[in-house]
């Protein structure tokens, strides 16, 4: 099959010269990423919905198990996002082999991190018991997690490959992969949880095996897509021992570890807020969860814009177009504000209706409608921080993002929310979260305004003699699969 070529930004016959052009460029990159994130989110929702048919105890245990899986895996996912500035800037500079070497190192890190995460997953039950969770739920959580650990190296390999493709502007393969994995996940859950096709019902363990198998499918499909459509052409380096030099790994970790702490701190900040909500009178935790689900769904759009900003800013810096990179960064933030302002307006005007998607309970609807207007302000700051963080990640400025999240949530947002919840109830908790996001947004925007973008230098020794002499640097350009 003859594939259409997708020229990298440096070869574009009509360079972006206006804010309108940047909006088009960012939108083209952001839409597939946002849809991909929604697809990944829907996999978790489908799992909970199907397990819910087994009863309340199973649902509670799987909810704890799902929290433990994602709460421990997010650090590895964040570390692998250290590939973003390296790959995107290498692509912009036309240094395909460097992007290929980064992927090889990312895959090694994925295997190591996934194996470590496998062991951590087995600690689910003792951790939840130490946190005074229901023993029955903790036991079910352990059963759900114990059958999933083997799949985490595959999931992190998928993450490394996705970041490599995204850094080169190839967003659609991950979207198609997630759509296929969602179909597989629904079918596997049905058969393994409830039985069928000669397989005995496996209940909670079946749900865990289905989820784990879906992760393997995600990696297999994305790898097959990459090789089948030759998406690695022009961005690969022959396998050599020199490619795995420690300085190359140190470069990824230098960018990725702060991102890992950023993602992990944010995830656990919201889980801590859920614990605080659970300490309020009955009904507050459920209303908090409903509000958080609604906010998380709309968050997928600016999350996509943030990923697009990473790619766009990194590509432009790699090309040496530093002023254009700054313009792209601020354009992404403006888009994030615009999208989340519209979302916030929806939260205010439909605050009495949105909760009905999840419940008909009058008390829960009243609590949810009281919190949604606060979530509207929360949304705007969330849109700013995720797009600013994405732009800074493309520039390789990841340390400030990790520090901002840790300090703003754990020194400002959560303590304030805990204190206000004693006075105002659940709305007070959300005002605290909103304040934390406002501080993060301010810090990241100030850093972006003051930053002087520069290209990432080659690591000493590890890249020596392995760059421009390789024929791949001058060969085929990256391609995107045809629209389907």
List the main descriptive attributes of the protein structure presented here.
mainly alpha; globular; single chain; disordered C terminus; 484 residues; 15 helices; disordered N terminus
Could you say which structural class the secondary elements and strand pairing correspond to?
A: mainly alpha
Please state the overall shape, judged from the principal axes of the Cα atoms. globular
Could you report the average pLDDT, rounded to the nearest whole number?
A: 86
Q: Helicity range of the residues?
A: over 70%
Distance between the termini: 14 Å
- Tell me how many strands there are: 0
Which residues sit in consecutive blocks of at least 5 with pLDDT less than 50?
1-16, 464-484
C-alpha-based Rg, rounded? 22 Å
Order of helices and strands: HHHHHHHHHHHHHHH
* Biggest sheet character: none
Beta-strand content = under 5%
Explain what the structure shows.
There is one protein chain. The protein is an all-alpha fold and 484 residues long. It has two domains: 31-244, no CATH class; 258-455, no CATH class. It has helices spanning 19-51, 56-80, 83-92, 96-121, 124-130, 135-146, 152-167, 172-194, 203-228, 246-278, 284-319, 322-349, 362-394, 399-424, 426-450. The chain is globular and about 60 Å long. The protein starts with 18 loop residues before the first helix and ends in a 34-residue tail after the last helix. The model is unreliable at 1-16 and 464-484 (pLDDT under 50).
